[in-house]
Amino acid sequence: MEDYEKLLKKAEEELPEKTSSGDRFVLEKVRGHLEGNKTILINLKKIAKDLGRDEQHLLKYLLRELATPGKIIRGRVILGTKVSATKINKKIKKYVSEFVYCSECNKPDTELTEDKNIAYLKCLACGAKKPVKSIK
Ligand SMILES: [Zn+2]
What we know:
Shape: elongated
Strand content: 15-25%
Number of domains: 2
Radius of gyration: 19 Å
Bound molecules: zinc ion
C-alpha cells in the first residue's frame, strides 16, 4: 500500500499547474510619438487604470527602468529622451509581472499596500502577501 500512496502523491505532484485564468485584462500597447529628442506617451494613464495602478507609480517605475527623466504634462507623459515603444512595452510587462500579478496564484486581483515603509503586493484572490520594491 505504501507504494500506491507514493504513486498517488506523485501523480498529484505531477498535475499540471492551474493555468492562468487571470488574464482578464488585455494589456494595451503604449501609444505615442517622438518630438525632437523627447518621447511623448498619450495613453499611460489608461494603461495604469486598466492595471488598477496609480499612473505616478507606473511612471516612476518606467523612468527608473529606462533611466530617463520624465513627467506628466496635461495628461501626456513626456520622457526626456528618445525611447522606442518596444522598449517601453517590455518594461510595462515587467511592471505587470512584478506589481500586478500574484506570484502564488497568477491572478491580477491584487493591491499594493504599505506596512512600516515596506511595500507589499497583496493578493485578493488567494491572500498571498509579498514584499515588492518600493517606488517613491
Ligand atoms: Zn494570489
